[in-house]
Design a protein that fits this description.
Blueprint: H1 2-27, H2 32-44, H3 48-61, H4 66-78, H5 82-95, H6 100-112, H7 116-129, H8 134-165, H9 169-195
Helix pairs in contact: 1-2, 2-3, 2-4, 3-4, 4-5, 5-6, 6-7, 7-9, 8-9
Length: 202
């Protein structure tokens, strides 16, 4: 019963937030920040399509705002549209190179997409731009590096097992190429740990 009351209260808060910003936009349709606020109110109530639509409306009103571009990227990422999100993170950083949140989100997305060279380079820039955040960022790098290492080690074990059983020369050649690519990913993961000041295990 307590959980039901909590859910009802939370739903009421979300509904009031949506109502507030909808009313604001009725009075002033060009209030771009109201579109942003409405988008994130919608996101909190799991109305992802509405959130995307509102952020796109904000972008039409303020296309040169790094805040709008970054937040549109955040909403698109929540909608599962990673490549489109990356476009807007890029725009946010281009408009404001000092937008650390956009840079951080872009680096994390690059890492998730397997673009580790770009992610590492961006983390390095973040360390230069925001020394006070270095400790937090170091923790992120360590966690990311170790997570990638664990995945890569499992991949290499599987490739080794497949190579041992495979007799077909063409398939073996493909496995060797895959082994080379995964080994390169392991070096990238080790680079993350080195960047964080942690000695990579051998």
């Amino acid at each position: 019963a307590a959980l039901c009351r909590l859910s009802a209260q939370r739903a009421g808060v979300f509904a009031s937030g949506l109502s507030l910003w909808n009313d604001t936009l009725k009075k002033n349709p060009d209030a771009w920040m109201a579109h942003v606020q409405l988008a994130f109110a919608a996101l909190r109530s799991e109305q992802v399509d509405l959130a995307v639509a509102e952020m796109q409306s904000a972008e039409k009103l303020q296309p040169e705002s790094d805040v709008v571009q970054h937040r549109l990227g955040v909403v698109l990422l929540r909608a599962g549209r990673a490549e489109q999100a990356l476009v807007h993170f890029d725009r946010a950083v281009a408009l404001s190179p000092g937008n650390l949140e956009a840079r951080n989100d872009r680096a994390n997305l690059w890492a998730d997409l397997g673009r580790l060279d770009e992610a590492i380079a961006e983390y390095e820039r973040l360390l230069q731009l925001a020394p006070p955040r270095a400790e937090t960022l170091t923790n992120v790098l360590v966690n990311l590096g170790r997570r990638n290492q664990a995945i890569i080690e499992r991949q290499l074990e599987l490739i080794d097992a497949l190579e041992a059983k495979q007799q077909d020369p063409e398939l073996l050649q493909g496995l060797f190429k895959l082994d080379h690519m995964v080994t390169r990913q392991r070096r990238n993961a080790e680079s993350l740990l080195v960047l964080a000041g942690v000695e990579a295990p051998r």
